[in-house]
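Per reviewer request, we include the raw input and output of the structure prediction for the construct analysed in the revised manuscript.
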Amino acid sequence: MNFSKLINIISNQKIKYLITGTYNTLVGYLVFVLIFYYFSSTVSHYLLLGACHLIGTIHNFFSYRTFVFKIKSSSLLNYLKFNLVYLFTFSLNIIMFTLLTKVMNWNLYLAQALIILIIAFAGYFLNKYYSFSNNSIFNKKNNGHEY
């Protein structure tokens, strides 16, 4: 494979999303390990998870905005929409995990592997067309009313 082909592959937005998502996952896990290593014996685990989530979503928002979707300016509204996408995909994860592991008796590791693929796909499109878009299909105006 020549260098220009490699550059073209890496320049693809979907590939950037996968690379950035992998990077974000590693950073999020590192934050989790460090926070729990230093504070888990004295601070509520739920509070620590909340801190990890906050740090992770802020980091992920800026990395996706900068490296994948190339948004020059963003607003609090973009960040709130990004968090709604995360809340939706987390809820989807819980529902699908319960369905696959409790109802259909799938292996939990196999179930989560499939769910990750579905959520990555859904997250890409929701972030592209909702979180990081001012012209998203979710923001169309009709007679002065937003939908």
